[in-house]
Predict the structure.
Amino acid sequence: MTWLTKITPDLSSRSARAAFANAGELHRMLIGLASSQLGEETMPSPRRHAGLLFRVDEGHTGPALLVQSHERLDLTRVDGIGEAAERDLSPFLDGLEKGREVRYRLAAAPSKRLGKSEKNAERLGDRARPGVRAYTRPLYGEDAERWWLDRAESHGLESRQVLSTGMGPALDPGKSGRRGVRLQVTRFDGYAVITDPDAVRRAVVEGVGRGKSFGCGLLSLASAEW
């Protein structure tokens, strides 16, 4: 099963403001909400095991956190943070058919991997990590859109319309000396026709691109007529 949970934070709450401070704090909060799925054993990738993907959407009344997971989250732990509503996505996903037109939204961290070379280190300048010669370069604008269109095709979608919006960085400052994370995020909205329903379902369940622990990769679909 695949569950979608919408959490609307109460920003007058200190707990909500702390949880929504950055992508890293949101990730840690969601791992706590999914802890019943993880058991007592330490896992190398708890996010992947729980199927956690998330995205923050800004609306007229403020932010909303969309969370996707394999099982229902423990919403008793949302008390003091905000209100939550959930739905089972499985019937919608099972009903996807070839030729169906859908609306989509994806927040992603489009990038291009650069080879291991001194020249690439020089090109990145201050952004290069000491002692490492392989890097990824964030993509913007038309380059970001081409990145998404290539992946949409491989994930069973023929995009008919795309609007890209730069969303700024997803941040996790890190703790206890751990290296921080900074990913440049672009949101893609548009219409597409399904060419391979199985590939689309995998993309929704598994996510798209990098940065899935930091609010990237959640592909949301809705019927085009909605």
